[in-house]
Amino acid sequence: MNSYGKLDNFRFSSFPNLVHLSLSSSGLYGAIPTHIGALSKLTHHDLSWNTLSGSLPLALANFTQIVKLDISHNYITGELDPQLFTNWTKLTSLQLQYNYFSRDIPLTLGSLNKLNLLCLDSNQLSCSIPSQIGKMRNLVELGLSLNKLSGPIPLTLGYLTCLITLLLHSNRLTSSIPSDVGNLKNVGNCKNLVQLDLGNNNLSGLIPPPIGYWSYLVQLGLDNNYLSSSIPRAIGNCSNLSTLDLSNITLSGLIPPVIDNCSNLTILNLSVNQLSGSMPPEIWRLSHLVELNLEDNNFSGELQQAICEIGSLEHFAAGNNHFTGPILKSLKACASLIIVQLQGNLFVDNITGVFIVHLYPTYIDLSYNGLYGELSPGWAKCSFLISLHLQGNNISGTIPHEFGELIQLGQLDLSSNQLVGEIPKELGNLKGPIPDSMAYGYQGPEIFSNNKGLCGEVKGFPSCFPSPTTTVASPTSTGRTKKGHKVMIFVTVSLCSTVFLACVIVSFLLFSRRKMRNTQIGVGKKKNGDLLSIWNYDGRIAYKDIIKATEDFDIKYCIGTGGYGSVYRAELPTGKTVAFKKLNGLEGEDLAYQKIYGKGKLICVLSNEIEAVELDWIKRVNIIKGVAHALSYMHHDCTLPVIHRDISSNNVLLDSELKAYVSDFGTARLLDPVSSNRTILVGTCGYIAPKLAYSMIVIEKIDVYSFGVVTLATLMGRHPGELLSSLSLPATKTIMLKDVLDPRLSPPTDHIGCSGCGFCSDCGTRVLALRPPISASHGMCFSGTSCFQATISSAL
């Protein structure tokens, strides 16, 4: 189905024997019509990944033969009607996640005794978990995360003896963890819990004793709760554990030596607790460990040289503890380390030699220790270093001029030391765009002198990007030219914040009313007497035209509903098709205006067989360039960086000329340097940076990760879900990008330039500090070098 389609006029009654209907990613909008109930013989129905709105019609109860139903990733609102579930007696899979369902989970769900998959994650459900769920004895996966659920975890979940995945994280659950949950000793062919995530709740009490029975557990998350306990020795029975997150739950005591029984651990997070004692030597025997986080505890003693025996360790964080003794020699042979965070300890060591001998560290923080000696010129060998923090030590001597060779370095803090001499002029070899800030404009271009690589809209410097009227050589022929690529970022809701937009609109309303009153111009009032004003870049549009075009905001014109309002699509008398967002939370009926782009969403174009073939490699490369340009502007050219937080193929719009526009800033945040920048988890599943889900901290790199996924999706013609999953494993072999390109197109020729495409593997790395800034990706996209021979590494 083409983009921006509706189901209203579809004659479902013409297909009374239809059993399988899949309309996923079809660009559908508007409400689900009631006459869809004519498909009474449907067994499989998929409406996922659209922009459907409204509530679920009760006519869906006519699906008496339904086995699998997926309406996830839409904008469905309202309550779940209990009557819907009474006739779905054959249902085995129900996926309603990533919508806006509110209020209660119907008790009638308990009657679906054949159900093995129930996903209600990321909605607005605000009830307690009904005990009736315990009646679904065949349930294998239960997802209720990212809601507003409260109350205790019901004891009846212990009856779910086939349960493999239980996701309850990011709710408001209280009380203790029932000992029956996961106590699945008599499971027959079921293999016990594999994934259990109860993090980000208000749970209290102890870590449940049955943890020792969960021998098949692969992922365990109990983080950010109020569990007062020590690490149970029974954790040693979980030999299949890959991820263990026990951060911020007030753990005390020692790390038990049996931790080495968890030989498959790749991520171990014990940060923000009250653990004490020295590191048991057994912890260094975890040979598959990639991330070890021990920050903000009371650990003491020396760190053994055995650290480097973990040949796969990339991220080692042990800051804000009481570790003592030397440390640099222990880290010297750690060839895999990329992130080192050892700040705020009692290390005393000579820093004169370079303790990191390989080239790949990106983030090093050794601040506020007792390091002494002089800085070595050998630091220049760490060519990928992005951030270096050595403040608060006793380092002496001068700053080596070789530091100017660290071209990737974005943060260097050497304050509160004993350094002498001048700051090397080589540190002034800056390049890249100059921030678009008034603070720079008043000081003149001389403050940027001796930086040959700078660009920007500052007098005396070249522009960073080709202007719309500048012609550049075509990548396919030197004899032809084309217009420089132009990308516009359009903000549907507020770019800065909803409050800012509200203030602008309200101010405009007051000004308009005063002006009309002074000039005695009569104004037609709407039904409730409030004046409606529209803020848009084309000027004012008559209110009566909007009302007429949308039939007074009839639901059939609604193409989406979000946290800030509802979006309506309408064709004005001028022939222009536009979208209006009717904003919530403001007096009157306030709208934001947006142009409807000819091709619609990138995800819809890629899923359409005809349009996807028309989207050749050059056009796809230009789309990637456009998104990179937009994100580069947001991250580097705004006074405060704007983090989108939901970059996905669903939020990249294409006009009739296939120019790319980044849209939907409803989840955007300003990156405030004086704020903690912590947040709840938002975004589109499959595009969310893993580090955001783990740390809940907003930084530019979360957009960079999503950009990497969008880049892959554009080149592959589909979301790279299975590829991302396989590449997350440490042992995954290198995959050539050319081997996963969209098979609907002929293989690209070598002269098609987009090194930014190969760059997507760096953008998508799960190691936060290894992700380059988006400006680097933008630069590579415009470099014109070949990319289709690039590799996608296991860093993704």
TrEMBL record:
A GO term from the CC aspect: plasma membrane
Keywords carried by this UniProt record: ATP-binding, Kinase, Leucine-rich repeat, Membrane, Nucleotide-binding, Receptor, Repeat, Serine/threonine-protein kinase, Signal, Transferase, Transmembrane, Transmembrane helix
Domain called Protein kinase: residue spans: 553-796
UniProt membrane topology term: Single-pass membrane protein
Catalytically driven reaction(s): L-threonyl-[protein] + ATP = O-phospho-L-threonyl-[protein] + ADP + H(+); L-seryl-[protein] + ATP = O-phospho-L-seryl-[protein] + ADP + H(+)
SUPFAM superfamilies: L domain-like, Protein kinase-like (PK-like), RNI-like
Protein name: non-specific serine/threonine protein kinase
The species this protein was found in: Tetracentron sinense (Spur-leaf)
